Amino acid sequence: MRTIDRSQTEKVLYRAAICAFSYYPEKPEQEPGYDVEEDVAWCTAPFEKRLPQPDLEVFRDVIRMLITVPTADRRPFIQKLAALSGEE
C-alpha cells in the first residue's frame, strides 16, 4: 500500500469512531432512512482516489464491521492506519 498523509488517516479514524460510537442495533429501524453504507462511505471518503479500489474495499469491510460489532478489536485497524501514514 502507498503512504497516505497522516491528516487523512486521522480523518478516517475519527469518522469510524464517531459512527461506531453512535451506532446501536436498532438504529436502522428507529431512524428512518439510516443506512450503515452511508456511514461507511463517509468514513472512507478521505481515501477515495488515494487507495487502489481493492484496498479501499477492504477498509470498507473492516469499517462496516467496526461500526456494527461493538466488541470488535480495533487495534488491527489502528495499526493499519498507522502503517498507511508511515508511522508503524
Structure write-up:
The chain has 88 residues and is mainly alpha-helical. The chain has one domain (6-84). It has five helices and no strands. The chain has helices at residues 6-22, 27-30, 36-44, 53-68, 75-84. Helix 1 (6-22) runs antiparallel to helix 5. The longest helix is centred in the N-terminal third of the chain and has 17 residues, at 6-22. The radius of gyration is 13 Å and the shape is globular. The relative contact order is 0.22.
Unreliable segments of 5+ consecutive residues: none
Could you say which structural class the secondary elements and strand pairing correspond to? mainly alpha
Overall 3D form: globular
* Mean pLDDT reading: 95
Q: What is the succession of H and E elements? A: HHHHH
Q: What is the end-to-end distance?
A: 13 Å
Rg (C-alpha, Å): 13 Å
Helix share, percent: 55-70%
The count of β-strands is: 0
Number of helices: 5
Largest sheet: none
- Strand fraction: under 5%
Number of domains: 1
In short:
With 88 residues, this protein is mainly alpha-helical. It is built from 5 helices and no strands. The chain has helices at residues 6-22, 27-30, 36-44, 53-68, 75-84.
